[in-house]
Amino acid sequence: MLHIVACIKQVPDTKIIKMNPKTNTMDRASAPAILNPYDAHAVEEAVRLKERYGGIVSVVTMGPPPAVKAIRKCVEIGADEGYLVTDRAFAGADTLATSYAITMAIKKIAETQPVDLVICGKMTIDGDTGQVGPGIARRLNIPPLTCVKKVVEVNKEQGYTIVHRKLEDGYEVIQSALPCLFSVEKEINEVPYSPLPNMLRAARYNPIIWSVNDLGDIDRTLLGLKGSPTIVAKVWPPEKPKGGEMLQGSSSEQVAHLMDILQDKRGLFRVKEGQA
């Protein structure tokens, strides 16, 4: 029986979020908090593997108390248990400090039942770094398989898994020992509408909540701002593109004008007719 842990995050909906023009920071209050879309696909894949091979799916997240909503969404998808790691000691964590805190939570989860597989989304839409998953794998000393687009097989008895890993021009087939960590692409599956029994269970579900004191022998210097060597000094929106130029004249005149514009942008010199 597989024990799969899915690492998730509650993030602001970046389709709606605005930038504060005075502070040049994201106005997180301007957008609703949602389950990170990549993580939804990670949880869905964990549930599919549970249904295929048997087992349980645990989800874990670090965040403020309202992050229980993201855990309940995972229960809707089909997760069995949820763990929220929340404490002021974790505030201001970058990807390095976050991966350490999540790793300690996974180790505590494993005390009840050993973990065979950890699944993460490829990245979060508010950070776009893709660093937390590999950081967890490094701290757990297990292989990280990134950009996974298909899980071919998970064989717990023989201790291996086979996946397809997305490349720019195709994919590669990877076989890895278990336990290991997947960070998955959105195309790995489609997240369907949740069945009514799952929705009812999620509405009543209360996750297990841990503070920093519950995580055992933890190094507090590796948490929060103290454990975060990365500092985001400033965030600003990209410049709005300038309006386009309408070309006038005949077709040949427009083509000639367009070539002049393109070559000017490339820093090239085009010899005009009669100058050669």
Automatic annotation (TrEMBL):
Transmembrane segments: none annotated. Residues 23-219 form the Electron transfer flavoprotein alpha/beta-subunit N-terminal domain. SMART domains: ETF (SM00893). CDD domains: ETF_beta (cd01714). InterPro entries: ETF_a/b_N (IPR014730), ETF_b (IPR012255), ETF_beta_N (IPR033948), Rossmann-like_a/b/a_fold (IPR014729). Pfam families: ETF (PF01012). One of its GO terms (molecular function) is electron transfer activity. This is Electron transfer flavoprotein small subunit.
